[in-house]
Every structure is written in C-alpha cells, then in structure tokens.
Model the fold of this input.
Amino acid sequence: MSTLPPPMGLLAELTHRCPLQCPYCSNPLELKRASEELDTASWQRVFGEAARLGILQLHLSGGEPAARADLETLVASASAAGLYTNLITSGLMLDESRIRALAAAGLDHVQLSFQDVDATGADHVSGLKGSLARKLAFAAHVRDAGLALTVNAVVHRQNIARVPQMIALALELEAGRLEIAHVQYYGWAFANRDALLPTRAEVDAATAIVTAAREQHRGKLVIDYVTPDWYGARPKPCMGGWGRQVMVVTPDGEVWPCHAASTIPGLIFDNVRAKPLAEIWQHNHAFNAFRGTQWMPIPCQGCEHAEHDWGGCRCQALALTGNAAATDPVCELSPAHGALAEMARDAATASPPPFRYRRIGG
Ligand code: SF4
Ligand code: FES
Done:
C-alpha cells in the first residue's frame, strides 16, 4: 500500500447543525451535537495534514457549515495550506458581510443548494418558511463578492416537473455550473423513498429537457446531471471508488470512506484526534475493506467494468441486500436487480406518504 496515490478531495463535515430538515439529507440518521464537534485548532491541523498528504480540494460541508462561527478562520487556514476551498451551503446563515469576509479569507467557490424553485415547494421540502427568497438574496451576494457559483438542485417526484425553471434560475443567477441531481437512496432518503422516487417516465422527460438545455446554453452554463441509480443498468462509481478519491471527516473527527459508511456494520474507523490523515488513508481498516477489486464477489470479479464502477455503492448494496459486499443491485448482472426494479416501480407509483424530516434529536 506504500504506492497508494493520495485522495483528490477532503469532505469536511464541520457540523450537523442546520436550519433545514431536508428529507433526503446525506447525513447519518444519528446526528452529532455541537458539543461533540472538533475545535478550530483541530480542523486547522487536519487541513494542514490534508495538504501535505497531497489532497487538492477541500469541500466544507455539514449540516450547514456556516453554523460554525469560526468558518472564516477555517477557510483562511485551508487557503493558506494551499487547498482549493469549496463551500457547500444552504446560504441561510451567511449575510453579505460574512460572504465578503469568506471571499477575503480565500474562499474559491460556493455551491448553493436549492430545494425547489417554487416557494411553497421549497418550504415543504426544507421544513423552513421563506427559504427560497433568502437563497436568492444570498446568490446575489456571492456574485457581488466575485465568487464562482454552482447551483445545486436536488430533484425528486415532488419537484421534477420544474426542471426547466431550475435551468432558468441558474441562468438568471449567472451561475457557471448547475448540478441537477436526483436523490440517491440511502440514509434519510432511503427512509423517504416512497415520497421521493419519480417514475421512469418522469425521469426520461427530465433527461430530455436537460440534454436540450446543455446544447442550447453551451459555453454559458455547464449542466451536470445525476439520474436516480434505481433506474440504471450499471451502478455509478460511488465516491469515485471506495478509498480511491475522497476522505470524509465527520463533525467529531471520525474519518470515513463515504458519507454513509457508518451504516456498514463491522467497519473500524479512526479519528483525526488520534491519528494523522496520511496514516488513516493508508492503513485504516474501513478504507481497506472495499478498496480495489480483491473483495469483489462474482459477477464483479473479472467483470470488464470492475475498474470503472468499482462495484458501485457499498452502502446501497447493504441497504438493499443486507450485505455491503454484495454486487450493487443497480447492476443488471446482480441477482437482486429484479427485486430492485420491482421496488422502484412500487415506490414511484404509490401515492407519496408524508416526509420523515431530519432533525437533531428527533
Ligand atoms: Fe460493475 Fe460488478 Fe456489475 Fe460488473 S458486475 S458492471 S463490476 S457492478
Ligand atoms: Fe457509501 Fe456509496 S454511499 S459507498
């Protein structure tokens, strides 16, 4: 393992605190409290270790990273360490002066999430009244501060009809990039799958709209598009392959190969309070559990796609089959693929139940 290349990115989940309660949140079902979070000096040390390890990109996430009063200090430290800094935010806890301070501290990029482009829909998904108007004001401050902006729109059965308006919004906000990402089903989203999964016909219609818009706005707006895994024939290379490109540090300092890794029983995680990132990257049990292709079952063993999709998503395999080492059921070669297709059809055609919201302590 001594020749292992470094990861490309570090996802720093600074906090689980958040003003929103999105029912597809990628945070664990059990959220960490503020009293458990790493302090400023610990995060600063981690950013220095990340840069020395060869990591290039730092994604500051949460929860809502701006719930940390020391966000500007953390950005300054990361920038001084030579990391490209991307803030993934709801935009609801940053006023104009704070976004200017972040720009001055060296922030490179802002990724702003939208729950919907319709005010009522946005309130319903986020569990917070008036969130859309506040996000629009925030986006203007980002632009005025000269920061690069990506609009992130999470799509599901309750807003998929508004994909054209999402594209129009990104153009109006002068975003350089729009990410239209269908919900992926693990964690909170798995618990809410019947309320979120669109039908295949709805997905196909949205895909056609995005394809046409990419052509129409080429050179002005880049559109990334993530379709729901459950309608695929081949899985995505989740996280770019387990233990290959990304390290996730949780608010209390545990280091995970992906944001849902704690759902997998038997993995042993290390904590940045006790070990340096470089040692964790090379030697940690959880990172090595599904790294490479040795662990793969048949039909992945020897499959021509094994070093492209890396066997898909371990957390999804666990959620759908009870076995994290199984072939991802999204793959049509998986013995569980037929059952997944049936589950998808049932979930998308039943009337949507009420959302189960993400709440700290709830
Ligand atoms: Fe990917 Fe495994 Fe399916 Fe091959 S069999 S395409 S490696 S998930
Ligand atoms: Fe954990 Fe895909 S979310 S491997």
